[in-house]
Write a structure and sequence with these properties.
By secondary structure, the chain is α/β, with parallel strands linked by helices. It is built from five helices and 13 strands. The longest helix is centred in the first third of the chain and has 13 residues.
């Protein structure tokens, strides 16, 4: 495959889910940095009426304030979001538990349950307002290279990170962020070390 001349950005974010979309907008809102946001999936599933997305997130009021700061929360609420007032957390052995109530905090609710697709579609739509974000959708990462500081000649700056996409497009930047989920392809390609264990949660 013939590679094109690399497109240069200040920052590359791989993964256009909730984390990648939110992070790109928070940065774009506060800076003039050029951002490439790469997402392999083309479309977001649409649910309506009694048809609900089985993937949901429980947003705290702090998370809601982040979405308000990038003018996304109103759009989410216009679709659908369900407030929750109580939360019960217990361990698998039955030896400990925590109970939270909005009444204890003198608040109307603790947060909202929101469908993943609703949040992602709202974030995608609001991304259009930022001229410094290039949303590359429907194109996945094929390979990536991150030069180490030891490879740079003495007194010279470390070279840029390079990301090769499936389409043949090549991206370069000083910073690369892997936000492509728990089974991150980018993390595996770059052999990023992680620590993980099962909590046995349900």
């Amino acid at each position: 495959m013939v590679r094109s001349i690399a497109d240069n950005y200040d920052l590359i974010i791989v993964g256009g889910g909730i984390v990648g979309l939110t992070l790109s907008q928070l940065i774009a809102q506060k800076t003039s940095l050029t951002i490439a946001l790469v997402e392999a999936s083309e479309d977001v599933s649409v649910y309506s009426g009694e048809n609900f997305d089985p993937r949901v997130v429980a947003l705290s009021t702090r998370s809601e304030s982040i979405f308000r700061s990038i003018d996304v929360w109103t759009k989410v609420k216009q679709q659908r979001a369900c407030a929750y007032k109580n939360m019960y957390v217990w361990d698998g052995d039955g030896t400990g538990k925590l109970e939270f109530s909005c009444d204890d905090l003198q608040q109307k609710h603790l947060g909202h349950i929101v469908e993943n697709s609703c949040l992602v579609s709202s974030l995608r739509e609001c991304l259009n307002r930022y001229n410094n974000v290039t949303f590359i959708v429907g194109d996945g990462v094929e390979s990536a290279a991150v030069p180490s500081a030891s490879e740079a000649p003495l007194g010279e700056e470390v070279q840029n990170v390079r990301v090769d996409l499936m389409s043949g497009r090549q991206l370069q930047s000083r910073v690369l962020i892997a936000a492509d989920g728990g089974q991150s392809k980018l993390r595996n390609l770059l052999e990023m070390p992680i620590r993980e264990w099962s909590y046995g949660q349900k």
